[in-house]
Protein 1
Amino acid sequence: MGYLGFIFASSAPRTSPHDVQTDLTTLYAPKLPVARQPKPPSVPIPMEIVMTILESAYDNEDIRSYNALLKNSALVCRDWSAVAQKLLFRHVTLATQTAYIAFQGAVDRATPRGRSLGDAVVRMEVVLDQKQPYRLSHKSFARAVSMCPNLYELSVSLYGEGAPGLDVVGSPDASRMKRSAPSFDERTLAILRAGPRISALQFCNWSDNSASLLQLLDVWPSLTSLDISGTTPQLENDAAEPFPCALRELRMNLQSSPSLEFMRWLLHNSTGHLRVLDLVREPSPELLEYLVAEHGATLESLALPTCGTHEAAAAVRKCAALRELKIEGAWASPVLYKFLPCGLEHLAFSVDSDTALRPVVQAIKRSLELRVITVHIWRGGERHPQLAEVTLACARLGIELRLTRDVRAFRAITRGDPVPAATYPRARSLANLLYMASRTVTTH
């Protein structure tokens, strides 16, 4: 190789093969692990607070919205579902056999959940309609009642079935109203007697069967509140034993004025106990005279459709303990307002363009205990020149003034729950609903 070749050859470094892989990814220094704080354990809201919140949303004037709230609340979780369902079952409506089958499965007393829901029912509305293809049977109605041991208030609507060709809507023929409906059989009555002792009964009868009411009245000697409407009831036997209940409240909206014999039979044991009397339709002079003579001394609330005669005004004067007076008609005798009871707390009346309001204004100024005035404005009443004087008199004395143009709203806001009243006007409230629930629990 030569000299130079030896030098270069001896001085060149020797290389060894290596397996090299090229990675163009940027490398970072390893991060230290982050110490995460453990989540605190979730604390569920106590069910007592959940129930209080849901109960506080109770609105009797808009029960559909309230029920919708409860249905949505039942979807939150299992615990909320139990609470919301109990509140939903406080007020139950059954109109068909299909609804009864579903209700029967829900309140099955063989299960803890069924017993809980059945015990929660305080109010029940039942529709017995002979014209419906899937109508609720009498025995199913009785069984539904028996499944609710804490039932306080029961509403029964009975509709008969007209004969072919005679049940035409709009027909002026009086025979159209002759709708037959069967009476309750002994088995049904036996089931009802073995069930809860209800305190309030509403019976709306749109059939020609006047015996159904008497059958139901015979079942519950515990009644303190009775609301009857529709077909006028009649005694089948003049020698029948008097109705045993001591009624505190009676409301009637009948097609015709009942006989004095029936009223004596119905209120025989209510002397000294009757506090609320609501007559939706004009009573006969003889009936009004009897009611005031026998029960006027203890009446605290009286509702009349009209009071335009001196005789009617004189009858009201005999009710010296009145704390509430309601007159639905727009015309009332001026004499009525000159001698209102001194303890009156609530006055309800109607106004049209011709109503005499000067006596009303003077009565308001003389009042000592008046707390609330409810006024129904008939057509033209909003332009009454003295309506402003009523408003001013109420404002000066600190009296609450409630105005409405809807007669149905007027009736609704002047009717309260069927419970004893400490003040008037009575209300439909959550407190009353809780009273019903506690009352039934302690008496069963």
Protein 2
Amino acid sequence: MTKVMIGAIWPSFYNLPNTFGPDAAMETNDFVAFIIFWVACLPLLFLKPELYRIPAIISAVIVLVAALAVFMWAIAKQGNGGPLFSNPEAVYGIGNLRGSELAWVMVRCINSGIGGWAGGILYQSDFSRYAVLPGDQVYGQVFIIPLCLLGSNILGIVTTSCAQGFYPNEPLLWKLYDLLQAIQRNEGPAARAAVFFAAFAFFLSQLSVTVVACGVVGGMDLAALCPRYINIRRGSLIIAIIGICINPWKIMNTANSFISAISGYAVFLGPLTGIMFADYHLLRRRRIKLSHLFLPQTGSDYWFWHGLNWRAPVAWVLGVLASLPGFCASVTPASVVVSDAWVHVYYLSWPLSVCISALVWVILNTIWPAPGIGEADDSDVFGTFTKFRNSNGEKENEEQMGD
């Protein structure tokens, strides 16, 4: 979106001479815009996590208005839902899918959608821990997130379909920044202001998501690994540096690689979700010793072997293993070829890996029980379950740990 904003102000930015080679997967103007966005993120990483709430709400409202404006403009200009709804087979050139072929395509799309949120499912506790009372996050997780995902998908599909109708010479404009650039090219100079403000709205949203969901979450994880040397801010800066080193523009280069990368989240993060769910809900029945969580020594029930529970990597590897052949074939189809059975297993990677790792975790802990399973502190060591007063001044008890 940074590139679109600059291009809306100075259209010549799109024609900036490219100094990168053909294998770079980006041009010079893309890289300049990326660095500007990266620099804009840096000062925000120094804020405390609890300060992001109001700016995030503001950016969410602004981007909602912008998304609805683009959607309604596309519907009004096209006059119908577009060719993706009236004649999708002709647009994609894949024929009419039926039976099991259609079913597996739908399964893959569902799994890719889950993969995009596999990280959020896994690290949701990084943010729910800031709730005033246990359970405050439930309504957002159960209602708001599914509603936002469904709504954004509908807006994106319909808008792309309409754009294919009134811009037939353009490729399918699935990426929003491609759509805004196409609007500026086809609608002329009069559209530059509208393109800029739309891009700015989505820029704010990207800024919020990148800082909170990538920088802060990664910073929390690194701080948990090395609390003596790394705090959340330092961890966030390390993640920002890694964000350049991994060349994210290569992931975004093609639709196929992007879908494969998103699905890869499901392959590798699904087992972790299964382990966490099985350990907390099935094995420990939501009973843990809070005091032992902060004892980095052999006296803690959660110290295991030098801080490592050997059962976890075993359960994770077995959860990943089933989906690995299909994942490799999806990422490198030219060099890796597997049977349809392995491909279908890969299409089920997230729910399958969650179930496999959860089952393996329960079995391993049943055969070789870990210390402290099902036990809790005899007293409220940290005052976690003390009574709070509601807005009317009446006392109310917090729910039990994890509810």
Protein 3
Amino acid sequence: MEVGMRSKIIHLVLGLILVVLLSVCTIKASASDDAYKQCENTVKKWASSSVDHKVQEDKHSLRDLLFFLHVPRTGGRTYFHCFLKKLYSNSQECPRSYDKLRFDPRKANCRLLSTHDDYSMMSKLPKEKTSVVTILRNPIDRVFSTYEFSVEVAARFLIHPNLSSVAKMAQRARRKTSAVSTLDIWPWKYLVPWMREDLFARRDARKLGGQSHLVTNDSYDMEDVLMPLHEYINDPIARDIVHNGATFQIVGLTNNSYFGEAHEVRHCVLKYHSLGDHVLEVAKRKLDNMLYVGLTENHKESATMFANIVGSQVISQHTISSSSAEVAEQRSLLSSTKSDLTGQSNSTHETLKNVSSTGEDEVRRENLTVGKLMEAYESCIANLRNSQAERRVNSLKRISPANFTKEARRQVSKILIEEIESLNSLDMKLYTYAQHIFTKQQTHVLHNMVSAQEIQTSTQTTSSYPIFNNPPSWKVSISVTALLLVLFIFLFVNSRRRTSKVKL
């Protein structure tokens, strides 16, 4: 009897426990469903308000402001120094172009913004007057490059005995100069300190363990010296900043975003990967409306296309701007001469000479052509690469025998490569889409070049003489008018002088 009662009680208790467990699981599942639905609504709402459903008809035309959205480790630094710095003067750069951390779109003559900031920067720009350009890179190579550069910059600090010494040096440097360092720029202001602390910790561990010489062939798995690549890609910091970084940057959802909802949307996408498709569609539409999309792997073709799409239009803007300035100067000259016709004869010539003079850089830009731009680019990029390579070698000496080379990359296991590809699934799809855009751009540029050649050929055949680099007719008219005006003033002043001498 007692045994039967005990058995019933045990079964009852087990049944109650089972009911409780089922209830907890149901509640958790319900809560999980609610959390997913909430995230889904958040992401869809953001995507709906962010996507540009219609491709801009004038997207091939350069507007007043050029926004170079520089995705890190895509070779954009060479474009900045070897293209944009030759096309735009320092006075035309908007504050926050790499070396400046304040942005004021109201700045007079602000024509170029080149920065690692994401697309949310557009919220501070006059959208209807802004053209956006960017460069994308194979996501696997970009992850490798991001890892290598983080290590390279962090290793420069190993000349110090400890992190306290690094902090004191940084304070002194900030007091002496207002210059901005790599550590002030996204994403390096997060990635480099993280890697720097890791390098110092591993160096200290080697000292305590008595290790002085290391022998290994895998620079990406040298855990006694630096953070192994497999550990790096799985760290929460890398998941938040590095993986799918190009997609998040192009839609304005990085941890550096100006959008108020960016953190919540990014959190939802990182938690529920299926929601990433909504972000990917927005990124594709952003690329569709950009003036230019380059590819790091197609370096030569990308550079040529940039010169023909962006460079040619900037050069054209300089020509129009200088022509407008010439007209304004002639009007100013006419006004001043009317009010002072009795002045000395040399004053008119001197005034014309002074108002038409420009700085050496401005003259060089006015005489710039696409061909000259490409020549300057090739020379510049060679020098820039040499200096960067030298700095890299000196930096990596501090973590010898680690040495990042193409051969070392090829030794990385296929499993690790596939993991990087999986972690960057959005960037992989966006890169494939960018390749299609790149092909369309090539076709567009080729069509324009053929059309221009046909027009030139037609012009030459209808003229009595061949035309080579003839100036536009309106420039000839302005020059002739100016010369006639100077001649008229000169004759008028001389006639007044002769009249005065006769009276005397």
